[in-house]
Amino acid sequence: MVRSIVLRAFLLLPIAFVAAFLLAPLGLTIAVSFWQRIGLSVRPAFVFASYLTFFDSVRFEVLTRSLLVSIEATVLSLFVSYPIAYFLAFKARPDATRLALLLFTTPFLVNYVIRAFAWTYLLGRTGPINTLLTSAGIVSRPLDWLLYSDFSVLVGLISSYMPFMIFPIWLSLAGIDRALIQASWLLGASPSRTFFSVTLPLSLPGVFAAAIFCFVSSFGESAIPVIMGGVGYQLMGNTITSAMDVLNYPLAAAMSTVVVLAMTVLLMGWYLLFDMQSFLGKILNWRA
Amino acid sequence: MGENVRRSHALVWLYVGFVLLFIYLPLFPPLIFSVVTGETGAPAFTLSRYAEMWRNPVLTDAIVTSLEVGAIVAVIAPLLGLAAAMAIRELQTPRLILSLVLLPLFIPGVSAGLATALFFHLVGVPPSLVAIAIVQAVWALPFATIVILVAMTTFDPVYLEAAWMSGADRLRAFIDVELPLIRPGILGAATFSLILSFNETVRTAAVQGGYNTVQTYIWATYKQIGLSPTLYALMGLLIVLTLILVAGFLLVGARRRTG
Amino acid sequence: MSTLSRPTRRDLMVLGAASGLSAAMTPLFATSVLAGGTINFADIGVGDPGGDWSRYTKTSGFNVNLVAIGNAPSAILNTLVAGGGTASYDVINIVGGMQKPLVENNLIEVVDTAQLPNWAKDKNIEEFLGKGEPGFNFIGYQGKIYGAPTVLQGDSFAYLPEKTGKLDSYAALFDPKWKGYVALEDNYTTAGQKTALYLKHAKLAQIANPDDMTADEVKTVVDFLIDQKKKGQFRVIWSSFQQAVDLIVNKEVYVIDCWEPMVFAAKGKGVDAVYADPKEGYLLWAMAAYLTKNPKRSPETTKAAYQLLDFMLGGWYGAKITVLRGYMTNTEAPVYAKEHPDEFPAGEAQKVAEITANVRRKFAQGGTWQNRWPTHVDVYESEWARFKAA
């Protein structure tokens, strides 16, 4: 039937889209990573030289730092965002929910570079926060570590990706059948027991979505580290740009490929550890 | 017992307020910088930058481009995301499709931008609105897909079965029953796509050719000549517009309740 | 702004309909098809005369479409090589010294200076950028001229005299008195080169040419910097104009390796910052406008591009840019500003004259010419990465 063919085409469209506009460039990147660098130009070849350069140098430390920072940012963001999502889903008035979501999302239409610079103003030695702290007597001199430190990078990352965390978790929580929670109370479970046994597991799809968003975005971030990071702070995005700056495209491509590989490995690990059922549960079962 | 409940309520509200403060705090400096001028040493208040903004042709063009691209991406990405979510559901290989759709997230922006630009160059896609929209849609697709997927997990297939038993065919059932229930997810996907588009800088810069979006314009100017007060004015305008939007929703909601 | 430069709303439907994206689409966007025409001008932001290209359009009949690009080699090269190629831009205005990769990748054309009447009028060119001088590296390569110099400047560092008193040597950047209150630029060809200049003069290292160091010399410089970093000397390494200005205006640091316009911007916000005149000399550099190599460009467009280059070597443009950005442009600028008080009020004309005289003095004193593409640039990059990671 025509309709089912059209439907099939529609379903396959995103795959075709990704294949054309992502797999092809990715393929190019992987191919270039094996090319040889002669002086300032590149020659098609198949050598591991760029990978060796990468693993052998300080750039590799940037990879480990990116991993660490992304994990930190994700965990912290989850802890900050989950209560908000919970509040929106359960405690707020139903008609106010949409408004509240809007309230938590619209600030992010403002460019994150501008927001990052606003943070550098706020967190500086002479900025309002330090001024407040010193005039209130809480500290004797301005806090240096508020800015140009690991702390400020985390602040930048968390404040950049928060809406992407709140919304998926809220979606999951809002979709939980209230009857399940009531059943848990009726069976005598305390509020915290209900939360950990019923609410939290059912909200896991949203939590995972939020975690994925925050982790991968932080990993490839290039602007926040240079605007808010300490002396020479860089993440993968910065080292790759730096390699491109000297036209070392094979090295840049090699680093990009390693990043993609690292992410894919993590994704595979997630697939293995968590049954798809827990994430997609009802979706995958529904035709059964 | 009542005392504890009230205290915990207060704590909750305090926390929410704190987080709101965290989100809104970085919006104040740009607003302030856009209206305050310390040029002669003493702070003064001026709205002149808001007018100046429109006289800068590069900026106005960039605004138009950003709006056009944002609109395209906010429509395409959720649609593709919906198709992808359905594909994960219908076709036999959910993990493969999910991995494919998530792939754009894994590639660092700078590499993705350059590689896509090179690819476009090789197949003959010229730098244009379409090129920018494609690059941004690819980046927004995983976000849109996952959001819609999450929305689908909250949807109980029981409703669809009820629809089938009442005689509706699968497509009708989907459109009439499921779609309205996952609408928040689709709207969320559209909002995310718009936000992502308004913040997307590195990938766009690589393929934009002769065009500027507001983001790439900010990116270039802040590096070389500094953020001008007119840029702050632009952001200030955006902030004010969204606050008006929020206030509007508030009023509509209030009227609906009393009406 | 012209709508001729954007035949795009239609292409959305065209490309959407066609599933195969073939090169057959390209003729639709070739600038040679457009009548009257537009010059696509890629600029790092410095070369924008406030959006006013009217005087150029009047003489050439062409519009200018200004596209903002970054100054980083990757930003420029990536766009020229991959993002639409040389057809995207006709003229690019960037900090010079990048001719080697640009020429070797066949991206720019030799400029025929006979077609530029203003070339001979600019005294800066013959005095500072002649063949055989290190300055030639900003506009030429292997004896041929590729770019028209649009901006010239001599860099040193800035400081807050209220906190530090008068400073006259790069040693201030490494003075333990200002520990934690110093910032450097994240750029091995400026901060790195200035450090090398200092180390050479202070006889702390054996460096033959700060502008083209050997691998060992670079390593010595970086070792020194790492030592300073570990001692907590630096607050941050900045990488954008905005960041540097903020650092000065917020008084986050007292001594900062930066560009002079940042001092002007800070002064404009009421902060007393001074750009130093160090005894070791200055870091000299120039911006140049290049013609991209595009065989498909029509002769009319090429002529208009030459007219643009000439326009940028002219008095009005030079004066405008000096007023807006604080950089020296060409020697016609102060003359023009003085002779046209209706366009440049007395205060602005004065500013142009002062800046031009001041920078010419810096060039006369000398120092070291910035080298954006040293022989061992790979070593520079990896050593700088080592500094950042330390």
Give an overview of the whole structure.
The complex is a heterotrimer of chains A (288), B (259) and C (390). Chain A is mainly α and 288 residues long. Chain A has 14 helices and two strands. Chain A has helices at 2-33, 49-56, 59-91, 94-105, 112-123, 128-135, 150-174, 178-186, 191-202, 204-219, 223-228, 236-245, 249-273, 276-285, and strands spanning 36-38, 41-43. In chain A, strand 1 (36-38) and strand 2 (41-43) form a beta hairpin. The longest helix of chain A is centred in the first third of the chain and has 33 residues, at 59-91. The radius of gyration of chain A is 23 Å and the shape is globular. Chain B has helices at residues 2-24, 28-35, 48-52, 57-90, 94-106, 109-123, 129-153, 158-165, 170-181, 183-199, 202-207, 214-224, 229-258; strands at 36-37, 44-45. In chain B, helix 5 (94-106) crosses helix 7 (129-153). Chain B is globular. The mean pLDDT of chain B is 82. Chain C contains 16 helices and twelve strands. In chain C, the strands form two sheets. In chain C, strands 1, 2, 3, 6, 7, 8, 9, 10, 11 and 12 form a ten-stranded mixed β-sheet that branches. Chain C has a two-stranded antiparallel ribbon with strand order 4-5. In chain C, helix 14 packs antiparallel against helix 15. Chain C starts with 8 loop residues before the first helix and ends with a helix. The relative contact order of chain C is 0.16. The chains are: A mainly alpha (288), B mainly alpha (259), C alpha/beta (390).
Q: What tags apply to this protein structure?
A:
heterotrimer, A: 288 residues, mainly alpha, 14 helices, 2 strands, globular, B: 259 residues, two-stranded antiparallel sheet, 13 helices
Q: Stretches of chain A where pLDDT falls below 50 for ≥5 residues?
A: none
- Order of strands, main sheet of chain A, comes to 1-2
Largest sheet of chain A: 2 strands, antiparallel
Strand order of the largest sheet of chain B: 1-2
Q: How much of the polypeptide of chain B forms β-strand, as a percent range?
A: under 5%
Number of helices of chain B: 13
| Helix-strand sequence of chain B | HHEEHHHHHHHHHHH
**What's the total count of β strands of chain B?**
2
What structural category characterises the helix and strand content of chain A? Answer: mainly alpha
- Overall average pLDDT of chain A: 84
Alpha-beta content class of chain B:
mainly alpha
